[in-house]
Design a protein that fits this description.
heterodimer, A: 369 residues, alpha/beta, FAD/NAD(P)-binding domain, seven-stranded mixed beta sheet, five-stranded parallel beta sheet, B: alpha+beta, Arc Repressor Mutant, subunit A, seven-stranded antiparallel beta sheet, two-stranded antiparallel ribbon, 27% helix, 19% strand
C-alpha cells in the first residue's frame, strides 16, 4: 500500500491546477493520470481560450497544458506523477486502486481531489453504429493528437462550443464540413465561434436533427430533418447530405463513477450535464475529504475548471493543516473569479444548476478522521 | 438571425460600424462581438486605452474610435477571431481589411483571392496586400477590397476569383477553374475535356466553349491556335428527342 497526502485523480486542467496549488502550500500530492501525457483535453485544444489573464485568456489550450505542467514540475519535491495510470476503484476506507502499466497499485491518501472530467453523450438514430460516426471529441483527439484526418466530408450534429470548435478545426485540417445542425432553435455555443465557421461558408441549421445515417460498410450519407416547435420531425423536410463522417456533439456528462462508488450524495442537474455531487463552497463533497473540481462537478469551460482546481487544492491543503497565511483572501479571490466567469448569460444556466447542489454540509462523515 | 444562423443581422452590423468619417481617416478596429461572454483579452491588449475597461468580464467591448489607431493588437489576441481592421483611407476606390487567419497555406502577397462575406458568400475579388505571421499563430492577412465592400468582406477563399466566376461552358456550367484544372491534370484536347467534364455536350453543342477551351489549352501548352486539334463533329448538330429519329423516315 502506497500513502500520500492528497491524491488528485485526473491530470487535466482542473487536476493540474489543484495539484499545483496544493503542492505550492507544502502538501504531498500524487497525480494519477490515465494518459501518458498531462493536460487532459487541453492537449487537443488548438484554439485560444476565453476568460481573463488569470485563466490564460487568448492562450491556446495546448500551450496552457505546457504552462501547467511546468508549474507542477516546480514543486517536484512534493509531487509524484503516475502517468498511464487508471483509477479502478475508490473504496469506503478511502483506498484507491490503480492499474498502471499492468501493475495493480493500492493508494491510501488523506484527501482525494476527483477531477475526472466528463464523457461525450451519444444519440440514437438508425444505423448509428456505422464506422465513420464519432463523438466530436474523439475526432478532435484523432486529428490534433494523433494527426489522423477522419474523412473527407463531415456532418456535425450539435452547435454547442465543441461542435463549432471541432468544425473549425476539421476545416483547418482540410476536411469539408457540409453542415452543422442542432435540434435546438438556437445556437448553443459562443456566437463568435459560429460566425467564424459561417463566414467560411458552412451552413448552421438550427431546429434540425439527424434522422438516419446511410451506408453499407461505412457512412455514405445522412438524412437530416427539420423539427417543429415541439421538437417533432416535420415530414417532407428531409435533406440527404453526402458525407463520410458524422460527428456527434450533443453535450458532455460528468464522469462520476468514483464518487458513486464511495457513496457521495449525487443529484441529477440537467444544467450541469447530469448527475453531480452535492458540494460546499470549498468543493468538498458529502464525503469528508473527497473534493471535486472541473467537469465532474458540472460541465463548464476549462477556464472555470482551472479555477475550481485551485480552489479544491487550496482547501484540501488547508484542511490538512498546512499554514496558508492568506487563505481567506486566496479563497475569496478564486470564488470571485468563478462568479465573474459565470456572471454572463452563458453562466446563468450553470449558476441555476450550482444553486441546487452547493450548500453547507453539516455532520459530514467519511473515511477521514 | 445571429443566434440561429451565426450570421449577424444588418442592425447588429450597424451597431458596431465605426462612423464613415472615422473609417476614411485611417485604420480602425471593427469589433464584431455581439454576445456577453466571459472574455476580455481585447481590453487587456489595447495599449491606447481605446477599448474601455470592462466592469464585468462578460461585458461586450466598447471602443473609443478616436483613441483607436488600428494597430491590430486586439485582432491577434481575440479568441473569437471577431475583430477586424478596416482602413478606407487606402485609395480613392479601395479599402484595406485585415482579417485574422488560422489556415495553411497562407496566401501569397500580391495574389488574388475571393472576398467572402459573413455568410461565406463570394462578394468581390480581393488582392492580398500583406501577410503577417504572428507568434500566436493567428496570422493577419491584409486584403485590398473595393471600398464599398470594406464592411462586408470578413473572410476569403484562396481560389482565384476569375477561375470561380468565369463560366466557359454555359450549358453545363463548367468554370474556367475546372477547365484549367483538367488541363493541368493532363487533358489536352477539347474532346478529352468534353468527355471528362461534359463541356460542349449541352444545347449549344460547344459553340460557346470550344474556342475558349482551345485558347486555354494553347495558353497552357504554348501551342498556336492553328495547331490545336479540333474535336470530332458528329450528328446531331443540336439536341433532339430520340422520338424524332425513331419516328423518322426509314433508310429505304
Amino acid at each position: 500500500m502506497k500513502y500520500t497526502e492528497i491524491a488528485v485523480v485526473g491530470g487535466g486542467p482542473a487536476g493540474l491546477s489543484a495539484a499545483i496549488t496544493a503542492a505550492k502550500y507544502g502538501a504531498k500530492v500524487t497525480v494519477i493520470e490515465r494518459n501518458n501525457s498531462l493536460g487532459g483535453q487541453l492537449r487537443k485544444q488548438t484554439h485560444k481560450f476565453f476568460g481573463s489573464q488569470k485563466q490564460y485568456a487568448s492562450v491556446r489550450g495546448i500551450e496552457i497544458a505546457d504552462i501547467l505542467e511546468s508549474q507542477l514540475r516546480e514543486y517536484n519535491d512534493n509531487v509524484e506523477i503516475l502517468n498511464g495510470a487508471t483509477v479502478l476503484g475508490l473504496y469506503e476506507d478511502g483506498v484507491l486502486t490503480i492499474e498502471m502499466k499492468d501493475r495493480y497499485i493500492k493508494l491510501k491518501p488523506d484527501r482525494i481531489i476527483v477531477a475526472t472530467g466528463a464523457y461525450e453523450k451519444f444519440l440514437s438514430f438508425p444505423n448509428n453504429d456505422l464506422p465513420g460516426i464519432y463523438g466530436a471529441g474523439a475526432v478532435q483527439t484523432l486529428m490534433n493528437q494523433y494527426g489522423v484526418k477522419p474523412g473527407r466530408n463531415v456532418l456535425m450534429v450539435g452547435a454547442g462550443n465543441i461542435g463549432l470548435i471541432v468544425s473549425y478545426q476539421l476545416m483547418q485540417a482540410g476536411v469539408n464540413v457540409k453542415a452543422v445542425i442542432d435540434a435546438a432553435p438556437k445556437i448553443g455555443g459562443y456566437l463568435v465561434h459560429a460566425s467564424k465557421i459561417r463566414r467560411l461558408g458552412v451552413p448552421i441549421l438550427t431546429s434540425y436533427t439527424i434522422k438516419e445515417a446511410h451506408g453499407k460498410d461505412w457512412v455514405e450519407g445522412a438524412t437530416i430533418c427539420k423539427l417543429d416547435e415541439n421538437w417533432q420531425m416535420i415530414s417532407g423536410t428531409e435533406i440527404d447530405i453526402d458525407v463520410d463522417i458524422i460527428c456527434i456533439s450533443v453535450g458532455l456528462t460528468p464522469l462520476a463513477d468514483l464518487l458513486w462508488q464511495i457513496g457521495c450524495e449525487m443529484k441529477y442537474i440537467p444544467e450541469l450535464g447530469g448527475h453531480v455531487p452535492i458540494r460546499d463552497e470549498n468543493l468538498e463533497t458529502s464525503k469528508k475529504g473527497i473534493y471535486i473540481a472541473g467537469d465532474v462537478a458540472g460541465i463548464e469551460e476549462a477556464s472555470s475548471a482551472m479555477v475550481e482546481g485551485r480552489l479544491a487544492g487550496l482547501c484540501a491543503a488547508n484542511s490538512l493543516g498546512y499554514i496558508i497565511e492568506d487563505f481567506e483572501e486566496e479563497k475569496q479571490d478564486l470564488i470571485e473569479q468563478l462568479d465573474s466567469l459565470r456572471a454572463g448569460p452563458t453562466g446563468e444556466k450553470i449558476l441555476n444548476g450550482l444553486e441546487k447542489v452547493t450548500k453547507v454540509i453539516a455532520g459530514r462523515y467519511g473515511y477521514v478522521d | 438571425m445571429l443566434i440561429k444562423t451565426g450570421v449577424p443581422d444588418i442592425e447588429d452590423i450597424m451597431e458596431i460600424t465605426p462612423p464613415k468619417r472615422r473609417r476614411e481617416k485611417g485604420p480602425v478596429a471593427v469589433i464584431e462581438c455581439f454576445q456577453r461572454i466571459p472574455c476580455n483579452p481585447c481590453y487587456t491588449a489595447c495599449r491606447f486605452g481605446a477599448i474601455k475597461e470592462f466592469e464585468d468580464i462578460n461585458d461586450r467591448p466598447k471602443i473609443d474610435y478616436d483613441k483607436c489607431t488600428g494597430c491590430g493588437l486586439c485582432l491577434t489576441v481575440c479568441p473569437g477571431l471577431a475583430i477586424f481592421i478596416v482602413d478606407e483611407s487606402y485609395s480613392e476606390k479601395e479599402a484595406l481589411v485585415k482579417i485574422p487567419y488560422e489556415f495553411l497555406p497562407l496566401p501569397e502577397e500580391g495574389s488574388f483571392v475571393i472576398g467572402l462575406n459573413r455568410e461565406g458568400k463570394p462578394v468581390c475579388r480581393a488582392q492580398v496586400k500583406k501577410v503577417q505571421k504572428m507568434k500566436n499563430k493567428t496570422n493577419i492577412v491584409t486584403l485590398v477590397v473595393p471600398k464599398e465592400r470594406s464592411m462586408d468582406v470578413r473572410s476569403f477563399s484562396m481560389k482565384d476569383y476569375d477561375d470561380e466566376n468565369t463560366i466557359i461552358c454555359r450549358c453545363e456550367g463548367i468554370t474556367l477553374g475546372e477547365v484549367r484544372k483538367l488541363i493541368q491534370e493532363g487533358y489536352r484536347t477539347v474532346d478529352e475535356i468534353k468527355r471528362i467534364s461534359r463541356a460542349g455536350m449541352g444545347p449549344c453543342q460547344g459553340r460557346t466553349c470550344r474556342q475558349l477551351i482551345m485558347q486555354e489549352i494553347a495558353k497552357f501548352t504554348g501551342q498556336k491556335m492553328e495547331d490545336m486539334l479540333m474535336p470530332t463533329f458528329r450528328p446531331p448538330t443540336k439536341p433532339i428527342k430520340l422520338g424524332i429519329i425513331a419516328g423518322g423516315e426509314s433508310d429505304e
